Amino acid sequence: MRKPASIAAPKGKLGILTPGMGAVATTVMAGVELVRQGESTPIGSLTQMGTIRLGKRTDARVPKIKDFVRLAELGDIVFGGWDVYSDDAYQAAAKAGVIDAADLNKVQKFLKSIRPMPAAFDQNYVKNLHGTNIKKGKTKFDLAEQLRDDIRNFKKSNKLDRVVMVWCASTEVFMKPEKVHDDLQSFEKAMKANDPAIAPSMLYAYAAISEGVPFANGAPNLTVDIPALEEFAKSKHVPICGKDFKTGQTLMKTVLAPAFKARMLGLRGWFSTNILGNRDGEVLDDPGSFKTKEESKLGALEYILQPKIYPDLYDKFYHKVRINYYPPRGDNKEGWDNIDIFGWLGYPMQIKVDFLCRDSILAAPIVLDLALFMDLAQRAGMRGIQEWLSFYFKSPMCARELYPEHDLFIQSMKLKNTLRWMMGEDLITHLGQEYYD
Questions:
Q1: Which among 353, 363, 322 is positioned nearest to 255, based on CA atoms?
Q2: Residues lower than pLDDT 70 in the chain
Q3: Cα dihedral 387, 390, 394, 395 in deg (nearest 10)
Q4: What's the total number of domains in the chain?
Q5: In this structure, are 161 and 291 located in the same domain?
């Protein structure tokens, strides 16, 4: 694969649009502004704190990623978004309860200036939300056109050079690809006919691609993971990626499962349960939305452990996922795992993991990194599915003829090797110099 002939410089301002301005989006907005003010540190962000090794280990070339590739500066970012509730970003952040009052007060003026545009929303797809800040239109195509107008107005009014979109809204009911998703003509016809196979999230993806805006899907929704929009993105030279931010419990799975396979340890069963009380928890209390999330969380182990290749170790392991809405916990999610493994001579062992995490604190740097990397991809002339960003997703998109890579360490290597490739540096294989000199 030929590296980009050139990568356009990140001149001017970059707009980050988020469908959904709840806990995750407002945590990103507040966090970026706190960092810009020198009040905090962007912990968890690869683009801001990560390094990349170049050349041999003896070369001692380990620059920060942001010094190696030309990313947009935090000072050049402008935020905007849509939400079913009319609260400004400060009000939404205060209600979410992720960031404490002392930190929020430091960025109060900034957050109050960000007001959500009315959302394209249909309660048939998210049963447990009852918002009032909602667009009206005769057809879904009309709503998509309104979203396109929003994008253009946002770009013009803020004098932006570039825009990216990162889905930070709720999990929709479970959907499978249908015939209307096969090609763009069928898709647009279905929008005009208000076909139920066209979910609201698809309208945002369609609008973004139509306007040449990179789109990242942070939820497990089908959204852009359909042939019609994948081909549309390629034809419009727009990068897309997704789906479902890899934050807490699944992050641990994609760390532990590769370790089991690397050491040839067997797995009998993996039981996972979650309790959370934020808006995400409320949405997932609906069986339809939970089904979408469940499918996303269940897939990783099958792909990592490859039971067809290692039947003695992983054939017919039992995997169960539960998510329970528990309001007192708020955004401070608890992910508990019981893992039954076996080793030498088949003797059983157990591992228990109790991850008391902060969901939006883990998701916020992912949103920032995806926005900056997707902007980089577009400036490098890359289009379609950006599989090198699988590192950030529970259910990563990939070409139809491939299987998705879930192993966190392989994902990390792919991400950094893609950056090396972009800049014309040798890829790191970890083959020792002594073997080929």
A1: 353
A2: 1-2, 5, 281-282, 284-285, 290, 292-294, 296-297, 432-437
A3: 10
A4: 2
A5: no
